[in-house]
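REQUEST FORM: STRUCTURE PREDICTION
Request ID: SP-0412
Submitted by: Lab K.M.
Chain count: 1
Length (residues): 777
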Amino acid sequence: MLHNQRTSALLESSLQEQGGGNSGAELVDLALGFLRRQYLVIIIATALAFAASVIFLRIAPPTYTAQVKVLFGNSKAPFVQQQSAPDEAPVDLESRIEILKSKAVATSVISQLNLADDPEFNGKGGWSHSAWKAIRGKLSSTPQSRKIDPADELIAKFESGLSAWRVGTSTVIEVSFNSSNAERAAEIANAIATAYIDDQLKAKADAHRTATAWLHGRLQELGHDALTAERAVNELKTKSNIVAADGKLMDEQQVTALNARLVAARAQTSEAMARLNRFKTILASDSYSASTGSLNAVSIGNLGSSETLSISDPQNNQIVNNLRQQYMEYERRESEYSARYGSDHLAVVNLRTTMKGLRQSILDEVRRLAEISKSDFDVAKELQQEIEKQLAQAISQSRNTSSAELSIRELENSAKGYRSLYESFLQSYMGSLQKESFTISEARVISPAAPPQKKSKPNTIMILAFGMFGGIALGTALGLVREIMDRGFRTSAQIEARLHLPCLSLVPLLKHRKVIETSALTTATDKESGQRTLSGSSGRHWAAAMAMPSSRFAESIRLIRFAIDLDSTKTPNKVVGLISTLPNEGKSTVAASLALLLANSGKRVIIVDCDLRNPSLSADLAPNAGAGIIDVLLGARSLEDAVWTDPRTNLAFLPVAKRAALSNTSEILCSEQTKKLFDKLRATYDYVIVDLPPLAPVVDVRATTPLIDCFILVVEWGRTTTDVIQHALHAAPNVYDAILGTVLNKTDMKAMNRYANYLGDYYNNEHYIRYGKLTAE
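STATUS: Completed
RESULT:
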C-alpha cells in the first residue's frame, strides 16, 4: 500500500508539472500525433469532398455576368435650368434601383428581345441545364399547390438573374445580369438600362403634360380673383375719399407732421417760460439787496438764445458785462481808497455813488431783458395753442376714416395674396411648358455592358478550394470525433495519467507468420514415462519468450520481471498475481510468458491457474490434466501429484482440472486451505505466478488479496475503456493498493508510432524474427 501511495503521489506531481508547463513544442507534438493517427480519415474525407466539387463543376451550368453602369443626376440644359424650380429633391437611388428591378422594366426587355423564345428562359434548355434545374427543384422541395402562369415564371426567371446596387457613395447604379451565354448577358444588361431611360422619359413627358394643363386652368382662375380684389380696393378708397401718398394715407401723414410740430412748439414755450422765471427771480432778489456780492451769482438768459448765461461771463451780454467790469473796477478802487484815506473820504463816497448807479443800470438792463423774454413766451404759447387746435382737427378727421381703412387693408391683403399666387403659378406654368417641349432624362449610361470573357459562376478555383479545405475540415472533425470516442488506452502516458499507476511494459501483439523453424519444446504428454509435461499446442508465448529471446515481446516480458525484482519498496514479491478488468485481455499469455522467462533464467517458478470459472491457461498448457488445484485444496491429491512441469526449464504449473461449474469460487480462494497451499508454494519456489480471473465480472480477485504480494494489471491496447477500469478499481480498493503496475498488452507497435515516438525500428530487423512460428510485431 505504501508503495502504491508513493507511486501515485509521484505520478500526480509529475502530471501537474507536465500540465502546468505545456509549451509550444508539446502542442506541436500533439498536433503531429493527431495527424499520424487520423491522416487516413482526413485524406479520404478530402478526396471525397474534392470529387464532389469536381462533379458539381461538371453538372452545374456556367453563368456569365454582364454589368452596365448608369449615372443619375439633375443634368439639364442651361435654359431649362433657368426655368426650373430652384429647389429640387435629391436623387433617391433606392427608388431608382427598385424601378430598375420592377416588373414593368422586365416585361419591356422580355418583349423587346423576345426572351419568351429563348430556351434559357422558357425552360427548354439542354441536358446540363435540365439536370441542374431538377437538382435544384429536389433540393428546394417546395410544394406547388397551384399551376404557375408561364408569363409569371418567365418574369421570375428574368428577375432571378437581375441585380442592381449603388456604387460606393456616388450616384452611379451598377446593373448586372446573369446568363449562360456571355453575349446574351451583355445584350440584356444594356436593354435594361435603355428600357429604364425610355420609361423615365415617357413618365416625365406624361407628368409635364398633365401638370401644364392643370396650371393653365388654375392661372385663369387666379388672374380673375386678383383683378376682382384690386378693383374692390379702388372702389372703397374713392367712396371714402381716402388719398394715399408713398404707400400711406394722407390723414396719417398730416397727424404725424402736426404731432412733430407740437412737440417742438412745447419745447420752445417751456424754454421761454424758464428764461422769464429766471429773470423774475433775479429782479426779485436784487431789488431788496444792497450788497454788490449778489450780482456775481446772477444768471440771466440772452434774448432768443436757449443757452443759460452768467453775468460774470462777458461774452454772453456785452452791456451787462461792460457794466459789471466798470462796477468791479470802482469796487476795487473804493476798497483801495478806503484803506488809504478812510471810508468817509469824499473820493470814497463818490466812488460808492458811482457804483450804485452802475448797479442800477445793470438791473435796468435785466428788466429790459425780462420784458423781451415775456414777449417771446407769449408768442411761443400762442403758436403751441394753434398747433394743438390743428392736431385735434386732424385726429377727428382720421377717426372718421378708420372703419373704411380696415376694410381697405383687408381687401389689399387679399389682392396681394391672389397676385403673389398668380405669379408663382405663372412661373411654374412657364417651366412646365419648357420641360414638356424639351424632356431630358436624369439618367445616362456611362459604361455599357460588354460580353464577359470568363464565367462568374461557378468559380472553379473557389469551388475546388472549398472542396479541398472543406474536406480537410470534415476529416479533421471526424478525426476529432474518433479521438473523443476512443476511450481505450493507447500509450503508457495515458495509463499513468488516468489510473495513477506506473506502466511497467508495452507487450506487442502476437501475429501468426510462416513457420520457419518449429519450436523445440515438448508438444505432448509423455505417456510412456508417466511424467506430466506441459503441452506446446499454443506456442505463442513459448516461441516468443524462448525461440526469440531478443524480440520485442521477450524484451517487454523482461521489463515486467525487472519491475518485480527492482521494486523500490523492497517487498519480497514472490507471489505475483496477473489480473485484467475484462476477459480476453491476454493476462494468461503474459502470465505464462513471465513464468517461462523466470524459469529459463534458473529460478524455481510455478504458475498457478486460479481462474476457477474459466481456466483458459489450463486448457492451453495442460488440456489432459485429471487433477488440479481444487483436488489439492480438497485433499484428494497431493501437490506433487497435481503439478505439471516443463522438462527444459523446470517450470511448474498447477492447473485446474475439468469438472462441473463451481459457484463458490471466491469462498474457495479465501479459505484456510488455500492460504496454507500458498504458504507452501512461497516456501518451495522462488516465484509464484498466479493467473487470476477478470476483476470486473467476478469478485474472486478481491478474495485473493491476503495471498498475493502484488498484482500486475493487464490492459488490452485500444480495447479496454477508461471508465470500465476506473470503476472496477474503485470497487476493489484493496486490490488497487496492491497493484505494482500495469501492462499494456496486445499493442500494435506500428500504430503506436501514431501516438508516440517509440524506437521500434531496431526490433524490425529480420535477424530477430526468423525464429519461431510466431513473431511479435
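NOTES: The chain has four domains: 2-15+38-60+458-485, 64-214+431-447, 250-400, 492-521+535-776.
Reviewed by: T.R.
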